[in-house]
Amino acid sequence: MDLLEGIESRRSVRGFKATPVAEETLRRILQLASCSPSYTNTQPWEVAVVSGERRDALSQILFDLASASVPSSSEIPVPAQWPAELASRASEHNARRFRVLEVERDDAGARNELRLLNYRFFGAPCVLFLFLDSSLSPWSVFDMGLFTQTLALAAHAHGLGTCLQASLTHYPEAVRDFLGLPSSKKLMLGISLGYPDPDARLNSYQSSRTRVDDFVKWYR
Predict the structure, then answer these.
(1) Which of 91, 122, 127, 217 has a CA that sits 20 to 30 A from residue 62's CA?
(2) In the chain, what are the domains?
(3) pTM for the complete prediction?
């Protein structure tokens, strides 16, 4: 796959086939992701790859917590209030997604079912959890973003899909306890990964993008 084609065609996948992903393929994707730049070459990313029976067990733990509406304890704060332009963009995105899926905005039951699919990893056979040592600064958070994008593109080039899920950071202690990791490892992101199911209805939605001149000012 051509690099530019891959950048333009990558998208979030929310419906996966059950087909397992070979460890050799995962290793190659992670090796490519490790080529990402980082502040003074610190390469701060730490990754847990969960599949098979362990994947199913962790999914059930997270699903049960979310089903019981246990409050999120995510270690990644979100703004108390988004700037108006960004809030409008997010609102439009959600409205369009619900229309495509034929879910009414006031249908709380259907919306909750969609929310809980996050904790089933949308059927993906593999999920990656990205960690960062809690002593590190926002520069390393920036590095983690670079690593994540490279990983998503590498997976796409191998015919795989990814979904980058903030929801999988909602219960960091449960994830760390399950994986046997210390509290010093901050859970940054969960990524469902597998072969896309083209027939999955959730994959029929395509998010929009702003124009270059909407986010760039030219100084000549």
Answers:
(1) 91
(2) 3-73+120-205 (3.40.109.10)
(3) 0.94
